[in-house]
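FAQ

Q: What does a record look like?
A: Structure on top, sequence underneath. For example:
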């Protein structure tokens, strides 16, 4: 798949991986929809792109406000006529122990990371199925495949995304829909700064593991390569996270011991 002239919608485009994706995809001649909660940051990202104004639509979007999704999708269709690729990148992480986290915080993590992503996908899906063409890229996490302390409900939501999108791929493959699951490990973004604690408030600081992660640009480059190669799943991480995923699959007992001792924040 080539990205030139494709209509590509990126959520979580105001910073981090989403911003890096926007810059790289814009350089390949795609038409972009940039979404996130912070419109001022989206405008900042758009102003940094070498694209014509008509080829880049800024569309403010809150994953907790799913009732607004049909109108947002209709706005995109009116502007560009169709959507070739939806990149579900927006989300919020967690830095709190399960025993200390009130259920309201758990519910918010699930609402943003799982329900919001699925709801937006379901609003875009009829248009792709009608055209018998489309790609859904969902950025989950390495903890969509393995557990991690301090991230219980975040990991639960990311595991759930794998179940939903693997099932969706099987159901709609013969109708022209393709699905790519992206599993980043540690990436040096503000994900830990914005991560919810047991109070429901952001952590407000970058943890060591995140600081030492891949750069957003490298992460975005690997995602784009996976899109072009037509992959169904890709792990974007350093060797430590890839080893942990391999170990969990083949030696779960050993992994269970190691994850209790591993530095994850």
């Amino acid at each position: 798949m080539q990205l030139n002239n494709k209509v590509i919608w990126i959520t979580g485009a105001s910073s981090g991986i989403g911003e890096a994706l926007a810059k790289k995809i814009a350089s390949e001649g795609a038409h972009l929809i940039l979404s996130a909660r912070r419109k001022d940051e989206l405008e900042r990202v758009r102003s940094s792109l070498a694209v014509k104004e008509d080829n880049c639509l800024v569309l403010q979007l809150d994953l907790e406000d799913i009732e607004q999704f049909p109108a947002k999708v209709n706005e995109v269709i009116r502007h560009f006529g169709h959507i070739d690729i939806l990149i579900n990148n927006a989300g919020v992480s967690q830095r709190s122990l399960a025993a200390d986290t009130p259920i309201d915080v758990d519910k918010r993590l699930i609402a943003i990371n799982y329900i919001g992503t699925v709801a937006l996908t379901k609003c875009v899906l009829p248009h792709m199925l009608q055209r018998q063409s489309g790609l859904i890229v969902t950025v989950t996490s390495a903890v969509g495949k393995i557990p991690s302390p301090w991230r219980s409900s975040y990991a639960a939501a990311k595991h759930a995304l794998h179940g939903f999108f693997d099932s969706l791929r099987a159901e709609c493959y013969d109708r022209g829909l393709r699905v790519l699951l992206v599993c980043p490990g540690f990436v040096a973004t503000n994900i830990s700064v914005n991560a919810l604690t047991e109070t429901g408030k952001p952590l407000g600081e970058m943890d060591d593991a995140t600081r030492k992660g891949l750069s957003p640009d490298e992460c975005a480059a690997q995602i784009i390569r996976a899109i072009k190669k037509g992959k169904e799943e890709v792990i974007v991480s350093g060797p430590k996270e890839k080893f942990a995923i391999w170990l969990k699959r083949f030696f779960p007992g050993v992994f269970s011991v190691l994850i209790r001792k591993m530095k994850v924040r």
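Q: Is there anything notable about this one?
A: The chain has a mean pLDDT of 97.
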